[in-house]
């Protein structure tokens, strides 16, 4: 399926290595690496919230929003030749492809020079992200690679090495939806931005009261639940903090000629908070039966 089931995920925090699975991400911090670029954020835990009057971010919750990975795009929807803007937890980001290191990266969407949006820039001839305002360029680690106005000799020649000239980078990785990438599955992905409150939507699509139908209900982790009924169809539901919800439907059936079959339907949603009253919603559905193409559905 090429890049349809390869997702770019990012976290607004310092560099971490994560073990990521389709069901539950498990963090393995490694913040002492000397290889981390100087522009990676090294801030402490910051919670997601906005003051209603001032519009500024406030720390009014104890939930560690920035300790998690967030799905921001399918790779097939990103152009490696163009920077792409994205908003996550009230922070404007720019996603772009670092050709030198062959990886997707995320910067704060502002040039350290005059705070112009880097997403309105371009990928220059050297594969760097170039600001459209005065042409400052940055490599994939956030280092300033070029200041066109600076003299080639003297103090100005060293301006690119100033920490004030670094772009702020957040960690990224590519995650594969392995369970849905099997050849027997037909998969459809829809995504769009919605003017809808994150908490209202999550309460709607992942109502914890649904767990009551299960004889094998369990709490996987704080803020997470999973449940399964053992009938036919067999329905499994799981919510993974902070914004992933998964349903799996298994149907035992018997058809003429082909005989007994097990039909499987996956419905997975990723509802990423962009800002108060705004979310980026992605729904991924897959089935292992009726493998034909329908306009608008496949």
UniProtKB/TrEMBL annotation:
<feature type="region of interest" description="Disordered">
    <location>
        <begin position="28"/>
        <end position="59"/>
    </location>
</feature>
<keyword id="KW-0408">Iron</keyword>
<dbReference type="InterPro" id="IPR050584">
    <property type="entry name" value="Cholesterol_7-desaturase"/>
</dbReference>
<feature type="domain" description="Rieske">
    <location>
        <begin position="69"/>
        <end position="167"/>
    </location>
</feature>
<dbReference type="Pfam" id="PF00355">
    <property type="entry name" value="Rieske"/>
</dbReference>
<dbReference type="GO" id="GO:0051537">
    <property type="term" value="F:2 iron, 2 sulfur cluster binding"/>
</dbReference>
<keyword id="KW-0479">Metal-binding</keyword>
<dbReference type="GO" id="GO:0032441">
    <property type="term" value="F:pheophorbide a oxygenase activity"/>
</dbReference>
<dbReference type="GO" id="GO:0009534">
    <property type="term" value="C:chloroplast thylakoid"/>
</dbReference>
<dbReference type="GO" id="GO:0046872">
    <property type="term" value="F:metal ion binding"/>
</dbReference>
<keyword id="KW-0411">Iron-sulfur</keyword>
<dbReference type="InterPro" id="IPR036922">
    <property type="entry name" value="Rieske_2Fe-2S_sf"/>
</dbReference>
<keyword id="KW-0809">Transit peptide</keyword>
<feature type="compositionally biased region" description="Acidic residues">
    <location>
        <begin position="45"/>
        <end position="58"/>
    </location>
</feature>
<keyword id="KW-0001">2Fe-2S</keyword>
<dbReference type="InterPro" id="IPR017941">
    <property type="entry name" value="Rieske_2Fe-2S"/>
</dbReference>
<protein>
    <recommendedName>
        <fullName>Rieske domain-containing protein</fullName>
    </recommendedName>
</protein>
